[in-house]
Design a protein that fits this description.
The protein is an alpha+beta fold. The protein folds into 2 domains: 2-114 and 273-281, Diaminopimelate Epimerase, Chain A, domain 1 (Roll); 119-272, Diaminopimelate Epimerase, Chain A, domain 1 (Roll), CATH 3.10.310.10. It has helices at residues 30-40, 71-83, 126-133, 137-141, 173-183, 220-233, and strands spanning 2-8, 17-22, 45-49, 56-61, 66-67, 90-96, 99-105, 111-114, 119-124, 147-151, 155-160, 187-193, 202-208, 213-216, 239-244, 252-261, 264-272, 274-281.
């Protein structure tokens, strides 16, 4: 099988989060997909198959197992389809374990993907999270923002920190993985708000060691959830721009748009650019 290697959510062609993409994966078993994902070694690899209703069915595997959805691997998939001339600019539908979701490719190659409408699944006290990420509960409380589990495809713990604390985080993989397993969440999405003068809404870091991801440089689903969180708790409008991966020397840019009617969110879309970085073949 040939695996395309793609950096997703790049910033002017640089940075981003690498994903593997395997096309024509119809005959692969789940065990074979997992084996390929482990060989690739990235946080996620997407497997593209035919579908009777959607344009494509896409499944996503980390090095430890299957996940319902992955934003950066979706972006990698459709950007590669576009760049190789298999599809043109326009709207498409992918079937995922998170549902049937639309994907739009703009003329400039930007990929914008629909996500599930947000579900608020849980909330935690500052004290509970303080013990896991090593920041005092008083510092966390100073944000005056809640710590919530929000899902637009995958459940993440959305954690605000005051400006200046994001880069100094020293996450404990074992503690985070234990917490995520206990509460049935994917990982921690930690953010600090940027100034009003900045072109960025927030800077973010994402930790999902339970799924073999110590830290990730760009996460589409988590930033979709963060946009919905900010839409509810702060009057920041409909459009968001997030930076992620700075602490990994791999800066990424993720855009999000959240539309609502009468304070009820009706649409969540996340977008960005991707750049192919190579390919290789592997036996299964």
């Amino acid at each position: 099988m040939e695996v395309a290697l793609v950096n997703s959510f790049t910033d002017n062609g640089k940075g981003g989060n690498p994903a593997g993409v395997v096309f024509n994966a119809d005959k692969l078993s789940s065990a074979q997909k997992l084996k390929i994902a482990q060989v690739v070694g990235y946080s996620e690899t997407a497997f593209v198959t035919s579908d009777d209703e959607a344009d494509y069915e896409v499944t996503f595997f980390t090095s430890t197992g299957e996940v319902d959805f992955c934003g950066h691997a979706t972006l990698a998939t459709f950007s590669t389809l576009f760049e190789t001339g298999k599809i043109t600019a326009g709207s498409y539908v992918q079937r995922t374990k998170a549902g049937m979701l639309s994907v739009t490719i703009e003329l400039n190659g930007k990929v914008v993907m629909e996500q599930q409408l947000p579900k608020k699944l849980d909330c935690f006290s500052y004290e509970e999270i303080s013990n896991v990420i090593g920041i005092s509960s008083q510092i966390l409380a100073s944000t005056k923002l809640p710590i919530e589990v929000v899902s637009t495809g995958l459940p993440d713990v959305i954690i605000p920190v005051p400006n200046g604390y994001l880069d100094s985080l020293k996450p404990n993989d074992e503690k985070i993985a234990e917490f995520c397993k206990k509460h049935q969440v994917i990982g921690f999405h930690v953010f600090e708000l940027c100034t009003l003068e900045s072109k960025l809404t927030a800077s973010c870091r994402n930790f999902a060691p339970l799924f073999g991801i110590s830290e990730e440089s760009a996460t589409g689903s988590s930033n979709g959830a963060l946009a919905c969180y900010l839409k509810e708790h702060l009057a920041l409008g409909d459009d968001y721009v997030f930076e992620q991966g700075r602490a990994m020397n791999c800066p990424s840019i993720i855009t999000a748009k959240v539309e609502s009617t009468n304070s009820v969110i009706t649409s969540v879309k996340v977008g960005g650019f991707a750049k192919g970085i190579g390919a290789f073949s592997t036996l299964v």
